[in-house]
Amino acid sequence: MVVREKDVCWEYAEKLDGNKVKCKFCLRVLNGGISRLKHHLSRLPSKGVNPCSKVRDDVTDKVRIILASKEDGKEVIPTKKRKQPEPRSPVSNSITTNRSLVTLETVSPIAKIFPNITQTGPSHVSDQENAERSIALFFFENKLDFSIARSSSYQLMIDSVAKCGNGFKGPSFEALKTNWLEMIKSEVSLQSKEIEKEWTTTGCTIIVETWTDNKSRALINFLISSPSSTFFHKSVDASSYFKNTKFLADLFDSVIQDFGPENIVQIILDNTLNCTSIVNHILQTYGTIFVSPCALQCLNAILKEFSKIDWVNRCILQAQVISKFIYNHSSLLDMMKKFTVSEEIIKTGITKYVSHFLSLQSILKQRSRLKHMFNSPEFTNNPAYANKPQSMTCIGILDDNEFWRAVEECVADR
Q: Which intervals of the chain are annotated as region Disordered (predicted)?
């Protein structure tokens, strides 16, 4: 089952078996999961976790803010001694009351750690830099994932605010959860109805995705895709029925009926579902609908099987010996970047096995530069590396033609 972690710090770690994680900066393996990783990246002396020697300063600052926020919880300082009602989720049923909201003054985690940081910033910086700084603080204080900045609506929001000029005030909490939520829902509903009209001509695909949330619930997401757009249909908590064929068959029947069997061309299934029984049910009940497995999961399974072959596995392990030796020594890593013109030899893919083969491809690309580095006076005259067992092992691998033939075979275009 595909697991999607909510914590933004997972972008700095690789999840291993059990409760272990590997730091992507220093490659150290830690016991204790994401919590230990945060203390490792924060470089604060706590809980017996060794600080990371290679983490970037900006990452350390971000993690410290997250830790401070977690310790403080939702601490607020009320201006009046009156109990503040807890806000409801925008998607829950809400009851409108005439009670006025109590004004609260919140102290942000970033202000507690760096009290000299202000929203407006130094007076000598440009308006552009001040604006970027305010946006950055908004991300940090609210622990937002940096990938949000890649959203198509991110720049659209900034452009719209800029057109309003000085004095623009953003929508309030109440306006967002009531007026704007309902208006956007209506717009999306109208847009989906326009897309549905073309299904009689183009048909549509149902994409089924399973994952586990941070409460260990087994969720099944249904998305609808057509040439114009892909949009979310619904999510079902199937924790109690995940292996129940009858429940899953009824669930798929209801989704198919939502859009009409005559409009559905194919269903793409997640491999974690009870595929055989579901596929048979769909094919027998709906003769015109194709069922396909998830291509990404199929490719990952293929790479996983490739990795089990002795000579491929040996090739991957030898490449990891070189990369671990380099990345475990900050000065050696700096030297490598000098020779490779800042190119990395460890590449991160969407899965562990994809990462293995992308890294092999990168090492092959840097073959001559790596050999040059290990034979350069800068390396051989350095007592920290020269004639060390690990150095000799790496040099032996780099000089091994069989290793390079194996790498070429692993990443060859066919």
A: 76-95
